[in-house]
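Researcher: Sequence of F-box domain-containing protein follows. Predict its structure.
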Amino acid sequence: MKFATAIVAAAVAAVASAQSAWTFPPEGPCVAACTDSVGKSFFPLYDDVDSNGPFFFTSLSYTFERGTPTTIAFMSQAGTCMNSCPITEQNSYRASYPLKLKWYQDSKPAALRRRRLAHFSSRTIHPSLAAPPSPPKHLQHAFHPQDLVACILVCREWHQVLTPLLWELYFDRAHYGKIPDAIASRQSTHFRRLHLTETAKPFPLHSTRLRVVAFSYCQLPLKDCADLIHANPEIAELDWTTHHLFLNPAQQQEDRDAEEVATVRAALERPTRLRKVFVGYPHIQLYDVVKILKKNPALRNLGLWSELYLGDIPAEEEGGGGIGPFPSVQDLYLNVSWEKNSKALLRFLRWFPNLELLKLARQEGCSAEALVRVCGSVARF
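Model: Prediction complete. Tokens:
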């Protein structure tokens, strides 16, 4: 009996010596509460705070034995809980994880001795002190992650693969104010869909693989919007509506800046993979629209929020027949005055032989008969 007691005392002393090197600061209160509550649901004596406690290594094993069913299940539940914690606590947890993992791996032999000691003691002291049994094997195929954040916290490989999915969409009305600008800027390389309105103040964007871009009266300067379009050649959907749309014609003319207009036009000519484009900028002209159509052969939806003057479209016998057709376009939205553009509009519509939906913002005086005659494929007006 004395010999067994001496072995237990020596093992405990060895574990305490190894654990004394733990110098990491405690986690935030919310994150700590999550790991503690989830840990105790797995192991009633869970304690990852007291570095000199008898079950410290056993508790850490739930977090750092990566790839095991126990750690996967633990990190899934803990990650779901942490999702509601302040972002500063979550970032601190992720930042310290690699260093803690290395410390645990370096000290792992002591952890294994501690588990054997717990198993030995469970036969002579009390069953509650035994190390928790391994979960049944069927848990290897019954892992149901609660959400994306929980999956990201499982291991480094999952973090690298899934983090881009977490940041795929940035919509300022939902995210601005909840996500610090510095973090949003740093993660903007992962953005694939970007929606900016008047809500967000400008912050640096480093996106280069955007596929959906919407600038709706946003505070981002026009030049910065244009630069972002130039930096993202994969854009498939573009919605660009500026505050200039609210100005009356006289104000629009006064506000017109040649360099600014050239910047916007150059940006609109940059994409070549557009399937959908809506533009609300009063200085766009017909030849700008033609360039967009010619550079995007897969374009299906075309919308022009600002008034477009079509009076300069030449008739076919005057050379206008060489501009179209554009068979890919199926939906068309136009802000055109029928009174000023009736003949030109009919010529314009002939460029779209497969048109299915036509919307006219200004329908006063429109001839339905003429539209039907020209747009025989249109199902809805």
